Amino acid sequence: KLELIHHLAATGITSIEVTSFVRADRVPQMADAEEVAARVLPKAGVRYRALTLNEKGFLRACSFPNLQPEGMLMIAASESFLKKNNNLTIAAALDAIPNWLTLFREHNVELERLMVSTAFGDPDEGKIDAQRVIDICSQVIARIVNEGVSLPEITFADPTGWGNPESVKRLVAASQTAWPEIAVGLHLHDTR
Fold this sequence. Notes:
Strand content: 15-25%
Structural class: alpha/beta
Number of helices: 8
Order of helices and strands: HEHEHEHHHEEEHEHE
Helix content: 40-55%
C-alpha cells in the first residue's frame, strides 16, 4: 500500500485517500490503517486523507500528523444502507450534524463536502428518486446553514452501482437548479 501511495504521489496527484479508519472486523483490508497512516512519507504539495465514517474514525485520523483530515459530512439516501454501514437512521444522521461541525472546528478542519451515499439506489430499497435525494440534501443544508456554515460541494455516491447516465444527469441537474452555488461531485461504481 505504501509503495502504491508513493508512486501515486510521484504522478503529480495532489490528494490521495490513503486509508480508511473503519472497523477492522467489518473491513479487514483496512486493519492496517494506523500503520499506513504512520508510515506514509509526505510529499510536498500532496494532501494525504483518510475515509472516516464516524467520530471515532475521525479522531483516529486526526492523531496522525501525516494526514490532513477531510471535513466531510456523510448521509445516505437509503436508510437501510445507512443503518448497515453507520448504524444510523437518516434522522439520527441529521441530528448529528451540529456535533460534526463542532468537531471539525475543534480540529481546525473546514467543511468541504456532503457525501450522499446510495444517491441512485441500493439492493435493499431499489431505485431512489432524485427528488428524495434533493429533499435529504435540503434537510442537511438547512442544518448546516443554521450553524452558520456554508457547503462548498455535494458529492453523490453510488457504492452499489445503481446509477446510469440518465439518472446521474437528472440528479446533477436537480442539484444545480436547487443550489447553483454548490459544486457537484460524483463517486461512481459500475458493480452491476
